[in-house]
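Honest question from a wet-lab person: if I give you the sequences of every part of a complex, can you actually get the arrangement of the whole thing, not just the pieces? Trying it with mine:
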Amino acid sequence: MKIYIKKYIEKKMIKMKKDWRISNRALKIKKSAIHEMTRLSKQVEDVAFLSWAKPTSDTPEHIKNAAVDAITNGLVGGYSENAGIIELRREISKKLKKDNNIDADVSQILVTIGAVEGLSSAIMALVDPGDEVILPSPTYSTHIRQVIIGSGKPVLVPTIEEEGFILDIDAIRKVITPKTKAIMYCSPSNPTGTVFSEKHLRQLSDIALENNLMIITDEAYEYFTYDGYKHFSIASIPEMKKNAISCFTFTKSYAMTGWRIGYLHADETLIPQIKKAHIPFAICAPVVSQYAALAALKGSQDCIKQFKQHYLSARNLMCKRLDRLSSFFDYQKPGGAYLMFPKILLKEGKDSTAFCKKLLKDAKVSTTPGVAFGPTGENHLRLSFCVTEEMINKAFNRMETFFGL
Ligand SMILES: Cc1ncc(COP(=O)(O)O)c(C=O)c1O
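Yes, you can. This is the full assembly:
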């Protein structure tokens, strides 16, 4: 009886210490440094903004017009099939074959609310409380949060920075335990811009097959690779059929951030299980955006080429400007995405949040603290070159003044 009372009091005490209304899952998630920097940046007039990984171009006209037509023709007033309209899934199936070398039947495709909802639904379908998910780090902070909100345990494995933040295959092997359920990564990477090589991804698939692990991919930046780097989809390996869930999006390729539309590919026996998460969260992806996405796939793909050309010259400019700050930053040239992740060489950079706040306050330049992407990101900052060249020059002119050059 005494023990029972003691335990009861202990439980009450724990409950009183935290906000009793909130789940432990939610409490474990830290405030987003990206959102915090955005909030602070809004208070600074004429800020030079390098914080967001969001395309600055507008959605191409033919895509917007297709959405207007769908509205005018009364196509968007109801729900669609949970998995997405069939015409869109057929086009996605063709695209996966053509661009990703993935043999995808429509029964293996789920249209989602951006890549993010696909990734979250995949985690919900796969992960039991306490299951471990390996994340090569630094990584997109949303992935860490998705694992935590799914009651899983993120296991962050540092990438090899000196070789361009490449996968550390041996280190990944070493952290596998009986609780490991999946490996989740984005390539090209947010925040480092690294394109994981086909050789390493094949080694990762061997690890998955040997240990019965799932691989969850985030291929948001699939089209943005430079200098001969090539994007490789792990689901193109036929043996991975049952072990891979691949998430894609229209956000980056067609500048459709606000449309919230993406899709996921998985084995047809997994799709109904993933739908068990997709339906209670979403029912279906926004129908108007599904028609816009259909037009994006069927229409001209020139916008992708134009965006890529712009990002490539913006990357070259940013690298050139960083070279002039070589006493302050060391950087790995990104082979993809539109992000880079320089290391801060000053001792003040050990606390990347304080450093970014100072840069914002004193130089009016908004960046993202590296620690937002996991502890291995500390001592770095993330810079986005998905901005105009004018913005890059403005930010770097100010940084040069800030550093006394
Ligand atoms: C790696 C990565 N995945 C996914 C997203 C978001 O994708 P979506 O808008 O399709 O949900 C982002 C956005 O910055 C990202 O960087």
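Two things worth pointing out. DSSP finds 14 helices and 14 strands in the chain. The CA atoms of residues 14 and 20 lie 9 Å apart.
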